Amino acid sequence: MMSESPEYFIGIDWGSSNCRAALISMAGGVMAAKDSPCGALTLRHDEFAAVFEQLTGDWITRHNVLFALASGMVGSKQGWLQAPYVNTPATMESLVESIQWFDQRIPVGIVPGIANYQDGRVLDILRGEEVQVFGVLKAYGISGGLLILPGTHSKWINVGHSRVDSFRTYMTGELFDVIKKNSVLKYALGESQAHPDFIEEEFLAGCHMAFQSSLLHNLFGMRTRSITTDVKPQSLDSYYSGLLIGEEIRDGLARLPHPGTQKVYVVGSARLVGLYQKALGLHAVEVVAVDEKIAFAGLSAMANRIVEHKLKGG
């Protein structure tokens, strides 16, 4: 008697500037993965199907793939198919129920984002981070806590009882680039590479200063220092990173619903997580470092919930 072939789904973390796809077993194991520079905001609407086929076509041909789940900017107005936001408090169940489905070679589902709905209005939005949140809950066996997802638009997400209760966004990464490339500080920071030699002492000094004075004043202080001393651009670059990350942490810690938080989960690249670990360490906050690929664990949890619904006739 022949055994049935194993079942898989395809998970896609489809952001603004790049795309990461994986063939995932229903048990949660990543069997294969591919990266593409074809981010959702780099494509015309009629180009998504071709990129999807290029990334997943051979997997669909060779394996028993039930469906694909895609999260991120692929579900925005500029994406493949717009998926609406789910209001907080948002559970995995509410996200799964709002997935937007359409047919390609296999069913494709676009995961919705989340809107931070408080006091009758939307205060904030996220798209793509929701799968990372539920990936952390699954991987670490927790039902709540504070998650920080640093990046172009950093997210501080409060989770309780396995649901996203609230969150706050900081334009830390984007502001870093805008000021470095388009302000008078570009002369002080120089034409340094994307990630110049990191000087920890300068970074921590910037983090400390963020708690002492306003960001607007501190930024001009960098110009003053560049003119009146022989400080090197790479030193100012590390200090600049500390100022912005420190400002984010100053406000984030002050607004926590449960002051005195001692542990946070920071999700991202090793470089970014390392910076936040150093900055948060100044305030006696323990950091659990989480790889950004945790998104696939979140998509896996959603895929299993979808299969459960189908088996129950939902």
UniProtKB/TrEMBL annotation:
GO terms for molecular function: 2-dehydro-3-deoxygalactonokinase activity. Keywords: Kinase, Transferase. Pfam families: DGOK. The keyword Transferase applies. GO terms for biological process: D-galactonate catabolic process. The keyword Ribosomal protein does not apply. This is 2-keto-3-deoxygalactonate kinase. It comes from Paralcaligenes ureilyticus.
